[in-house]
Design a protein that fits this description.
It contains 14 helices and no strands. By secondary structure, it is mainly α.
Length: 376
């Protein structure tokens, strides 16, 4: 009888051990699956950013090269496709399970949200207008390389708004990106762009620097808002901010378009477009869609990682544009531009490496308390 009890006890212990091993295997496989899905989403968003930003920039320059003159139109192209974000938000909510959290105390008030959307929308309309002017007066290769300085502005504004530390890698990145932009204004001749005077070239350079500063300020401000105002870093909050700020910015630009009377010239501009009326519509529609797919990728990277990482991916896509511009618009690839591209990429890598060190340190800090609890 004792022998049989021992066998039953041994069998129960083996069964229990197998069940525990099975549960451990399942629990360990779940994080791997989730991690794979997360990196798949990140990869898709990176492809959106790296492909659509250069495409949208090239299409904007194509509009100018073939008879387009309205900076309001080019500005609006960056904003008017925000209904795509509404669809993206709708379908992303369908896939996600409904949250059981009913704590609304941390949700900001309507007045606070309206103020946030208005301020960020005005900032978006300002930098979009500046970038449209810069693209009008500068070669697209020069424009994109100057715009890469947004990384430096992001670090600068984050120092004041988000207590960003100026590590040696950040300082190195700031220096390289500053030198990269300075090379272009010193060594590039305005004759590269047809019918552009020296004054217009300088105006284009200043406006592009202003647009770059506006993007850096916006991304730093978004990071501050999610820490101080929104509290919770949810996909709904990220998407709502992107949608409503684009709505406000679109309304501001449309008011400027109609107030200036420039809308009256658009029908004749379409008729006189060098590539034809159909190409005019296709160019503008493609640019608007490209900008919004880029925005989807940018917003997705902010949610999956951080605004710093999304800005880094944006910056690495900018040196792609000069290479395309040489093929499409026959821009001159001088030694100063090649050196500027090398410095921009070097500055980007320095910035990303510091981000990698910050992420690694953050994971280590989170892992240590868990290990102590397990040991306890």
């Amino acid at each position: 009888m004792d022998r049989s009890q021992e066998l039953y006890a041994s069998g129960d212990q083996n069964l229990e051990a197998n069940l525990i091993d099975h549960e451990v295997t399942e629990s360990s496989s779940l994080p791997e699956t989730r991690n794979f899905k997360r990196w798949l989403r990140v990869s898709i968003y990176v492809i959106f950013v790296l492909s659509c930003q250069p495409l949208a920039t090239i299409l904007g320059r194509l509009y100018y090269e073939n008879g387009g003159k309205s900076t309001y139109v080019v500005t609006l192209l960056q904003l008017i496709g925000f209904p795509v974000l509404v669809l993206f938000r709708f379908f992303s909510q369908i896939r996600q399970p409904k949250s059981a959290d009913t704590n609304f105390n941390q949700s900001p008030s309507f007045t606070t949200l309206a103020s946030v959307y208005m301020c960020t929308g005005l900032l978006v309309s300002a930098y979009a207008s500046l970038s449209a002017i810069g693209l009008l007066y500068l070669p697209v290769s020069t424009f994109s390389l100057i715009l890469a300085s947004q990384l430096a502005f992001t670090a600068f504004f984050s120092y004041f708004l988000n207590s960003q530390k100026f590590t040696p890698f950040i300082v190195n990145s700031l220096f390289l990106l500053t030198v990269s932009s300075a090379l272009l204004v010193v060594n590039t001749e305005p004759q590269e762009t047809s019918n552009v005077s020296r004054l217009q070239y300088v105006v284009g350079f200043i406006c592009t620097i202003g647009a770059s500063a506006g993007i850096g300020l916006l991304l730093s401000l978004i990071q501050l808002l999610f820490r101080k105002v929104f509290k919770k870093h949810t996909s709904s909050a990220v998407m709502d901010l992107a949608i409503y700020q684009s709505l406000v910015a679109s309304c501001v630009v449309l008011i400027g378009l109609f107030a200036s009377g420039e809308w009256k010239t658009l029908p004749s501009e379409m008729r006189n477009y060098k590539l034809g009326q159909v190409s005019y519509v296709v160019t503008l529609a493609s640019a608007a869609i490209s900008w919004q797919v880029y925005t989807v990728g940018l917003v997705g990277l902010i949610f999956e990682s951080s605004s710093v990482f999304s800005n880094s991916i944006t910056a690495v896509g900018l040196p792609i544009v000069p290479v395309i511009a040489v093929i499409v618009f026959h821009d001159k690839m001088e030694a100063s531009k090649i050196f500027s591209i090398i410095l921009a990429i070097w500055g980007f890598l320095s910035f990303v490496y510091q981000h990698y060190l910050d992420e690694k340190m953050s994971k280590t800090c989170h892992a240590n308390p868990v290990e102590e609890d397990i040991q306890t």
